[in-house]
């Protein structure tokens, strides 16, 4: 194993089978749907990083600007020598904006894409030789525990990128309740939340002119074929994303271009022309609305930071005593 990164395999041995069962459950539901986690094979992770560079996609650059501007303030609230745990760490890019200010005792990256996780955490370890770096290959949407042997005075979870918006509000509250159970009283959560805004900004962000978000969405079909041995027509669907104002969420879909079927794990899933597979939600919140949700889940709001255009917010919450 890599001497620079302490690797923790928390993916259960039956993961492939259970993932296939989860896929089938969604594909045979009405309406058809899949979890956003199925986007993130290696290619999906690379495409998401490319999405973050598109001019229409404001969340990443806005969140990073907030982190840069507020790093000292965040460090004052969070404190030094914490155990910093990044959920859905991906390229570990945003956490770099905080490391020098926070100076955690150790860092743990948690991600579902194993190879991408190992590459990213190794780069982080090379660039920060003073930092103890851990990597946990895990699905953080399922029950998990922090690995043993983490240095630090207290755990502080870091959940950037507005990924909390991929959950329905009910699921988000349940997820936060589970996270609160993993933290001691006073343990912290630094979480990025996308704010409600003009629908034109939102629609453009998920329909970039370069077609990167479309490629990211359609890559799900390639993963079905290559990883889950599905029979699927790769050119048989188109990307669709729009803001559902009534539910305060962006919806992403793969829309069938004609009558067709996907065959996976011995099952046949029929699609009519125009029928869609709902692949992702991205819920948007007001600052007060998210604080209220977090409070119901067992967290107390301590601070928040936003940009001058009120596009995005970073909340610091503490596990209630």
UniProtKB/TrEMBL annotation:
EC numbers: 2.1.1.44
Name of one Pfam family that matches: Methyltransf_33
Gene Ontology biological-process entries: methylation
Any one GO molecular function term: L-histidine N(alpha)-methyltransferase activity
Location of the Histidine-specific methyltransferase SAM-dependent domain: 21-318
Keywords of the record: Methyltransferase, Transferase
InterPro entries for this protein: EgtD, EgtD_Methyltrsf_superfamily, MeTrfase_dom, MeTrfase_EgtD-like, SAM-dependent_MTases_sf
PANTHER family associated with the record: ERGOTHIONEINE BIOSYNTHESIS PROTEIN 1
Protein's recorded name: L-histidine N(Alpha)-methyltransferase
Species this protein is from: Billgrantia sulfidoxydans
């Amino acid at each position: 194993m890599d001497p620079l990164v302490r690797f923790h395999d928390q993916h259960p041995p039956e993961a492939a089978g259970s993932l296939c069962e989860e896929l089938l459950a969604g594909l045979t539901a009405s309406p058809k749907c899949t979890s956003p986690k199925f986007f993130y094979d290696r290619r999906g992770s690379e495409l998401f990083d490319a999405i973050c560079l598109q001019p229409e996609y404001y969340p990443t650059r806005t969140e990073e600007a907030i982190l840069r501007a507020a790093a000292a303030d965040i460090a004052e609230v969070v404190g030094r020598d914490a155990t910093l745990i990044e959920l859905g760490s991906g390229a570990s890019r945003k956490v770099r904006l905080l490391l020098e200010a926070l100076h955690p005792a150790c860092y743990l990256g948690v991600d579902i894409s194993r190879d991408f996780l190992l590459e990213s955490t190794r780069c982080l370890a090379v660039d920060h030789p003073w930092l103890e770096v851990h990597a946990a290959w895990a699905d953080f949407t399922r029950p998990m525990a922090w690995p043993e042997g983490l240095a630090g005075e207290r755990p502080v979870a870091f959940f950037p990128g507005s990924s909390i918006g991929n959950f329905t509000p009910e699921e988000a509250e349940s997820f936060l309740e589970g996270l609160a159970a993993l933290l001691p009283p006073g343990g912290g959560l630094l979480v990025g939340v996308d704010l409600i805004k003009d629908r034109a900004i939102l629609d453009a962000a998920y329909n970039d002119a370069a077609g990167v978000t479309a490629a990211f969405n359609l890559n799900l079909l390639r993963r079905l074929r290559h990883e889950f041995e599905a029979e699927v027509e790769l050119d048989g669907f188109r990307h669709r994303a729009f803001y559902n104002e009534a539910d305060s969420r962006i919806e992403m879909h793969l829309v069938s271009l004609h009558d067709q079927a996907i065959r996976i794990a011995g099952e046949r899933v029929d699609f009519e022309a125009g029928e869609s597979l709902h692949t992702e939600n991205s819920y948007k919140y007001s600052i007060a609305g998210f604080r209220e949700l977090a409070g119901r889940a067992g967290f107390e709001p301590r601070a928040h930071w936003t940009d001058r255009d009120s596009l995005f917010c970073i909340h610091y919450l503490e596990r209630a005593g």
